[in-house]
């Protein structure tokens, strides 16, 4: 099963597609990147992910795999002899990053998105509060997982580095809106980690330009506001 053709259906602005690109880059795998227009979804996307019709989708030898965290684990398992291992071999040691990866998506990222999309100032303020609280837990997770080394994976990039690292562009975008989820006071370890991770060549090669992401975010927020006003 290892080897063969890899295609990634995604969008430049999607942090979840970015997650898969990071895994592929760190594993040293070649793939065809297919940029989707989510306003006019391709037949390939719809047939590959008929349930959610969302990106990312990794197509390996014609077989589609959906959902970013599942895709990253698939890449690590199927290409276990290629590049670094992203998850430890020990079942317990694998369970820890899986737990925190789910927490990042379900708690940190969910509230973080609300800081942009909240309908009232009160909703946005509450989202900021929840995001900062979640960041404190992820800060503690970094201390536990890294054991004083540079990355969640220790000396090398691991599953959690890729999970959180897919959000580095969102960090920059948030900062342009005046909100910094990780800073040197509340979360010094994560603040330093963001700079360290962002400086890696494999990351710089694929992280989109911040200005373009800000323009995209403004467009999506305007669309959301227009939709609310038309309800």
TrEMBL record:
<dbReference type="GO" id="GO:0006749">
    <property type="term" value="P:glutathione metabolic process"/>
</dbReference>
<protein>
    <recommendedName>
        <fullName>Glutathione S-transferase</fullName>
        <ecNumber>2.5.1.18</ecNumber>
    </recommendedName>
</protein>
<dbReference type="GO" id="GO:0004364">
    <property type="term" value="F:glutathione transferase activity"/>
</dbReference>
<keyword id="KW-0808">Transferase</keyword>
<dbReference type="InterPro" id="IPR045074">
    <property type="entry name" value="GST_C_Tau"/>
</dbReference>
<dbReference type="InterPro" id="IPR010987">
    <property type="entry name" value="Glutathione-S-Trfase_C-like"/>
</dbReference>
<dbReference type="Pfam" id="PF02798">
    <property type="entry name" value="GST_N"/>
</dbReference>
<feature type="domain" description="GST N-terminal">
    <location>
        <begin position="4"/>
        <end position="83"/>
    </location>
</feature>
<dbReference type="InterPro" id="IPR040079">
    <property type="entry name" value="Glutathione_S-Trfase"/>
</dbReference>
<feature type="domain" description="GST C-terminal">
    <location>
        <begin position="90"/>
        <end position="228"/>
    </location>
</feature>
<dbReference type="GO" id="GO:0005829">
    <property type="term" value="C:cytosol"/>
</dbReference>
<comment type="function">
    <text>Is involved in the conjugation of reduced glutathione to a wide number of exogenous and endogenous hydrophobic electrophiles.</text>
</comment>
<keyword id="KW-0963">Cytoplasm</keyword>
<dbReference type="InterPro" id="IPR036249">
    <property type="entry name" value="Thioredoxin-like_sf"/>
</dbReference>
<dbReference type="InterPro" id="IPR004045">
    <property type="entry name" value="Glutathione_S-Trfase_N"/>
</dbReference>
<dbReference type="InterPro" id="IPR045073">
    <property type="entry name" value="Omega/Tau-like"/>
</dbReference>
<dbReference type="InterPro" id="IPR036282">
    <property type="entry name" value="Glutathione-S-Trfase_C_sf"/>
</dbReference>
<dbReference type="Pfam" id="PF13410">
    <property type="entry name" value="GST_C_2"/>
</dbReference>
<comment type="similarity">
    <text>Belongs to the GST superfamily. Tau family.</text>
</comment>
């Amino acid at each position: 099963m290892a080897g063969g053709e890899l295609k990634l259906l995604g969008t430049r602005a999607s942090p979840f597609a970015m997650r898969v690109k990071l895994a592929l880059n760190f594993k040293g795998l070649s793939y065809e990147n297919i940029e989707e227009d989510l306003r006019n979804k391709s037949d390939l996307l719809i047939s590959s992910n008929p349930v959610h019709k969302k990106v990312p989708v990794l197509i390996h030898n014609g077989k589609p795999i959906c959902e970013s965290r599942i895709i990253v684990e698939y890449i690590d398992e199927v290409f276990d002899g290629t590049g670094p291992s992203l998850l430890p071999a020990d079942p317990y040691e694998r369970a820890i990053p899986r737990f925190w990866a789910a927490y990042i998506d379900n708690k940190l990222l969910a509230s973080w998105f609300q800081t942009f999309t909240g309908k009232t100032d009160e909703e946005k303020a509450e989202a900021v509060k929840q995001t900062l609280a979640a960041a404190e837990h992820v800060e503690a997770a970094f201390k536990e997982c890294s054991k004083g080394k540079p990355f969640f994976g220790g000396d090398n990039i691991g599953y959690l580095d890729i999970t959180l690292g897919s959000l580095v562009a969102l960090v920059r975008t948030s900062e342009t809106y005046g909100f910094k989820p990780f800073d040197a006071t509340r979360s010094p370890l994560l603040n330093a980690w963001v700079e360290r991770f962002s400086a890696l060549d494999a990351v710089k090669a694929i992280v989109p330009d911040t200005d373009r992401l800000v323009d995209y975010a403004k467009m999506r927020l305007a669309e959301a506001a227009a939709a609310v006003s038309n309800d």
